[in-house]
Amino acid sequence: MTSKPPKGHFNILYFARAGSFTTKNVEALPAPLPLSKLFATLEERYQGIKETVLDNSLVTVNLNYVDMPGGEDGETGDEEIVIQEGDEVAIIPPLPWKCVM
Amino acid sequence: MTQRPGPNSVSAHVDNGEDVPDSGTSGASVSRRLTEEEFDRYSRQMIVPGVGKDGQLRLINSRVLIIGAGGLGCPAAQYIAGAGVGTIGIVDGDVVEVSNLHRQVGHAASRIGMKKVDSLITHLRGLNTLPTYVPYTFHINPQNAADIISRYDLVMDCTDNPATRYLISDICVLLCKPLVSAASVQKSGQLIVLNCPPTPQGRLDRQYAPCYRCCFKKPPPPSSMLSCGEAGIMGPVVGMMGVAQAGEAIKILISALHIPSQDHSIPLERNLAQPTLLVYTYELENAVGPYSFRALKMAGRKKNCFACGENSTLTLEGIQSGTPNYEQFCSLPSPNFTLPPDERITASAYHGARNRGEIPNHLLLDTREKEHFSFGSIDGAVNVPFGKLLTKAAAIKREGGAASDILPPVEESDVAEDTPIFVVCRRGLDSQEAVEKLKELGVNNGGKRRIVDIVGGMKAWKDEVDPAFPWV
C-alpha cells in the first residue's frame, strides 16, 4: 500500500485521469494545507489540471468525501477543513472519460 | 451428502405461510411456494443467512434493467440471471466484435456480428431458462429512457459514455428507481449505489442517498487534454466491477431496499445506510505495483443538486423534449484550433517529400503513448508521449530551463537551429496541440525552424501510405 508521507507532509493520490495528467499515482505535499488552497496548489504544479481534471473530480480526505469550498455557483463547501500531516487526500475523476479520437 | 427434498416434501420445506412484502413496483403479492426446480437451482444461495425463501421470492418477483451489454453488463447479467431475478431487460444497440471478446464474457466467437443483446441473452438462457429476458436492441436515449426504465424495479448502469450516465441517473431520480452504477477504463474501476432507497425528487427533510450528479456535478470539459492513447481496458478490471455491481443489485432486491422512501411502512433507519464509492485500481507500469480497493464514504443528497435537489426543474417531459441537452452537456471534444495550412502537411505529402529527399534532415516526433508506438512507427520517429510532453512543458515554464530539453536527446551534429520538426500522433489532434506547445516554448527559434503537424496522424498514414500499418 501507499507508504506513509514524510514528516510535515500529506499524501495525495491521483486516480485514473488525474494520474495520467500528473504522471504519478501518489505524491507527498507539505502539510498543513487548508482544503480551500488545495486546487490552487495543484494548479501551480500541474498547469491546466484544475479545469480539465479537478473541477469535475470528487475529493476525499481520509476516505471521506469533502465538499470543495469556492464552487463557481457560490455554494459553500467544507471551508474549515485543513489537511493535516499524515492525511490521505484522493482526487477521483469520473469514469469513464470518453477518448476523444 | 446433501439432503434433497423429494417432490412431496417441497411444500413442507418452503411454504411456511408467511406474507412476503411486496417487491415494490412490480405489484402482486409474492408469497407462494417455490417450484421444485427453483428450490434445487437456488438452494445454495437461499441458505445463506439473510436470503431465505423471502429473499429468493423477492429476486424472482423483481425486474432488473441492465443498460449496456459490454464489459460490465456481461458479468453483471450472468450473476443477475444466475441468482434468479425474474425479469431481466437488457439494452444495447451494438453488435459483437472480435475486439470485445477479451472482456465481454457473455458473447462468443460464434456470435460475432450478432446484436450484443441477443448474444448475451443466448448466453444467459444457457445458464438459466427461468427468468424472462427482454431484449432492447437499440441505444437508450432521452426519448425512450423513461418508458423503458419505468418497467423495472432497479437499474444497472453498465454503459460507457458520460452523456448516457447522466441521462440514466436523472430518469432514475424522477421515476424513483435505485441505480447501481459502475464504470471502468483502462486499469480503474468505480462502483456506487445511487438513489437507494429511492426518494422523490426535491425531498430533503433528512439524509437521503445521492444521485450521480450529487457525486459528479459536471463531466470533464470538452477541451480536456486527453491523449488519444488513453483508451483501452483490462478485462479483469471491468469484469470485477460488473460482478460487484450484480452483488449490490442482488443485495438491494433481497433487502427490499428498492421500495421508495415515501412508503412509510419502511423503517427509517435504512435511509441512513452510508453511500460508498468503491474504487479499484490496478498497477501495471511497475511490476510490483499492488492492486488497491478503496471504499470512500460519500455525502448524501445535495440540497442544490440539479436533478434531485430542492429547486430542481428537471422533468420527464423536459428530458423527452431535449432539456437538458445531454450531448451538449457532455459534448465530444472538438479541436479548439486548427493550425494554419503552412504548419500542416498530409501524411502522403510528408511521405512523398521524404522519398524525394526534400527533407533530408528533420526530427519526427511521435506523440502517441508508448504502447501504441510499440506496434510500429514511421522510420526514424522518436516517441515523446503527449502527456510527458505536456508535463515537461509545464515544468520548463514553472522552473525555467532550456526549451530544447523537451526534445529527445539527439546527436548535436544532426540538429541545427533550423532543422524542421514534424509531429505525428494517433489521429491528428494531440500533434496540433504539441506543435502549439513547442512554439510557445520557443522551440521554433523565432521562426527559423518550422514545426509541422502531420494531418490525421498515424491513422492517415495507414489510410494514405501504408495500409499494412498496425494502427490501434
Basic shape of chain A: globular
Distance between the termini of chain A: 34 Å
Count the helices of chain A. How many?
3
What is the string of SSEs of chain A from the N terminus onward? EHEEHHEEEE
In the sheet with the most strands of chain A, the strands line up as 2-1-7-4-5
Number of strands of chain A: 7
How much β-strand is present in the residues of chain A?
A: 25-35%
Class by SSE composition of chain B? alpha/beta
Just give the CATH class of the largest domain in chain B. Answer: Alpha Beta
The major beta sheet of chain A can be summarized as: 5 strands, mixed
Order of helices and strands of chain B: HHHEHEHEHEHEEHHEEHHEHEHEHEHEH
Beta-strand portion of chain B reads: 5-15%
Please state how the strands of the largest beta sheet of chain B are arranged side by side.
3-2-1-4-5-6-7-8
Mean pLDDT of chain A: 87
Pfam families (chain B): Rhodanese (PF00581), ThiF (PF00899)
Family (chain B): In the N-terminal section; belongs to the HesA/MoeB/ThiF family. UBA4 subfamily.
Binding site for ATP (chain B): 71, 92, 99-103, 116, 160-161
InterPro entries (chain B): MOCS3/Uba4, Rhodanese-like_dom, Rhodanese-like_dom_sf, ThiF/MoeB/HesA, ThiF_NAD_FAD-bd, Ubiquitin-activating_enz
Structure description:
The complex is a heterodimer of chains A (101) and B (472). Chain A has helices at residues 16-22, 38-45, 49-52, and strands spanning 9-14, 26-30, 33-34, 58-61, 64-66, 82-83, 88-92. Chain A is an alpha+beta fold. Chain B folds into two domains: 62-329, NAD(P)-binding Rossmann-like Domain (Rossmann fold, 3-Layer(aba) Sandwich), CATH 3.40.50; 341-464, 3-Layer(aba) Sandwich (Oxidized Rhodanese, domain 1), CATH 3.40.250.10. In chain B, α15 links the parallel β12 (421-424) and β13. Chain B is elongated. In chain B, 44% of the residues are buried. Mean pLDDT of chain B is 86; it is low at 1-29 and 225-229.
